[in-house]
Write a structure and sequence with these properties.
single chain, 156 residues, alpha+beta, Arc Repressor Mutant, subunit A, Dna Ligase, domain 1, three-stranded antiparallel beta sheet, 6 strands, binds zinc ion
Amino acid sequence: MPHLTDTLHIRLQRLHQAGLRPTLQRLSVLGTLDTLGQDSFSVEQLFQTLRQHQQPISLTTVYRVLHDFETAGFLTRQWMDGHRASYLYHPRNVPGLVLRLVCRCCGHQERVDDPELLEHLRQQAARRGMEATGATLHGLCRHCNSATGEPGLKRA
Ligand SMILES: [Zn+2]
């Protein structure tokens, strides 16, 4: 794995800044989140990926670590279909501002990674004296859009 010490150092630093003791389990989960390649995930998905790539970790521990990370602001918990929890990961390399597309219908979320756009939004907010930390665009995802046959954004 390239730059192992660098990424490990960054993760240790991130835990430290959040006031979390750098346990092996926390580092495993954080490392897996960094390599998951998707923003929105369920506990089951994360658990399976951990079991595939890392040392065994119990589901109880995964829940505990996720709770710590949620408190630290690494994650946002959201509810799919009203009862199923899923998490949205906030990687450290998004500088200050996270822009999310959120489906009104199923709650699916995706992050927009466009540094230029994010910087523009940040400046617009700063000009009005606001330190922007997040923005949300509501609409219908590809799946729900084709299910309802409704083009474009749906009004609230
Ligand atoms: Zn949807």
